[in-house]
UniProtKB/TrEMBL annotation:
Belongs to the purine permeases (TC 2.A.7.14) family. The keyword DNA damage does not apply. It comes from Nicotiana sylvestris. Keywords: Membrane, Signal, Transmembrane, Transmembrane helix, Transport. This is Purine permease 1-like isoform X3. The gene is LOC104247422. It is found in: Membrane.
Length: 237
């Protein structure tokens, strides 16, 4: 069962990682302008987690009733983890906005390469926060990605979309790097939360964590849409 869950999650992650940016970029190419809406769509499907969570809770309750084990917890997330997860959700919400803005202003190839620098940010923050040990493979990967971004910056404008100003292109460049930096910060913070939890990191706990932080990220995007009047059909960004 663990292998099946791992394979399914890898498939979903691969499809979302590859297909998401293409669909988002297509929306902007076809005249879409609502960046906050694109941000909102990245996490709005969080209620889907209720299905596997419900199944997990059902089996936990069944185990309690069958074994008369009242010490077994159904909801694994503690109040401390819950509060920390809310903070992660806020960061994720703004990270999603930065990523959407970059996707709106840059070609998919450029934004994809820039966002890949999250590995370098993750490595740096993991070293500072989670005490990650460096390896030669990790250092080589970070160096190659850094060189790629430098070369891209030197030739910025060569793939500048038609009708887009230089200022918008550079801002999209910066926003994408900001999204990569936030993603690089979030991963070590999540690892730190798991370490400080002092409990087994089960599939149920991970689902609870994802459900809460995606919900919070969606709330952040919803507030952005309200302020930007996206619900009223405004054509502004």
């Amino acid at each position: 069962m663990k292998i099946v869950l791992l394979v399914l999650n890898c498939i979903f992650l691969a499809v979302g990682t590859c297909g998401g940016p293409l669909v988002m970029r297509l929306y902007f190419i076809k005249g879409g302008k609502r960046i906050w809406l694109s941000t909102w769509l990245q996490t709005v499907a969080w209620p889907i987690n209720f299905l596997p969570l419900g199944i997990s809770y059902f089996y936990s309750l069944k185990n309690i009733n069958d074994n008369n084990n009242n010490n077994t917890k159904v909801i694994l997330m503690t109040p401390r983890i819950f509060v920390a997860t809310i903070g992660i959700g806020v960061l994720q919400g703004f990270g999603n906005y930065f990523y959407s803005y970059g996707t709106a202003k840059l070609p998919v190839s450029t934004s994809g390469l820039l966002f890949a620098t999250q590995l370098a940010f993750t490595t740096g923050f993991a070293f500072l926060i989670a005490k990650l040990k460096f390896t030669s493979y990790l250092v080589n990967a970070v160096i190659l990605l850094t060189i790629g971004v430098v070369l891209l910056a030197l030739h910025s404008g060569g793939d500048q979309p038609e009708g887009e100003t230089k200022k918008e292109y550079i801002l999209g460049f910066i926003m994408t790097l900001a999204a990569a930096a936030l993603s690089g910060l979030i991963f070590p913070l999540v690892e730190l939360i798991y370490k400080k939890a002092h409990q087994a990191i089960t599939y149920t706990l991970v689902l609870e964590f994802q459900t809460v932080y995606c919900f919070v990220a969606t709330i952040v995007a919803t507030i952005g849409m309200i302020i930007n009047k996206d619900f009223l059909g405004s054509k502004s960004n």
